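Pinned message: reference record for Phosphatase NudJ
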Amino acid sequence: MSYREGRFWQPDVTVATIVVRDGRLLVVEERVNGKLVLNQPAGHLEPDESLHDAALRETREETGWDVRLTAFVGAYQWKAETGRHYLRFAFAAEPERHDPARPLDTGIERATWMTPTELEAARDRHRSPLVWRVVADHLAGRRHPLSMVQQLA
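Predicted structure (tokens):
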């Protein structure tokens, strides 16, 4: 596909949030195509939504946690085996409040806390290679100011 040929290609824009509490990472177990997989709280950007707001919303919807974003970890491009392209914006966050009565998004079985070692050992259950790559970058200290990601009015 080529823009010059009058065709338009667009990747799926997603956000992910790395939330750490007492050395553990907040992860979700979600059912995708009948398989139980692990992911960060993550999801698609919605129309007219900032990336920051999307990260906060997806974390709340998938885990019941309200968080405070603290840093931008990075942007990641990935082509899935299906041929779909993803552009993920990952943020670091601190947990603030949890609402255990909040219903979780469809497909989310549960939210849980895992050590980085536990999550890495479960690589065969990661929803995509983006899961560990984002965590590895976070663990390596990759943090950028939130101002690196801006929404213009």
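Pinned by admin. Summary line: DSSP finds three helices and seven strands in the chain.
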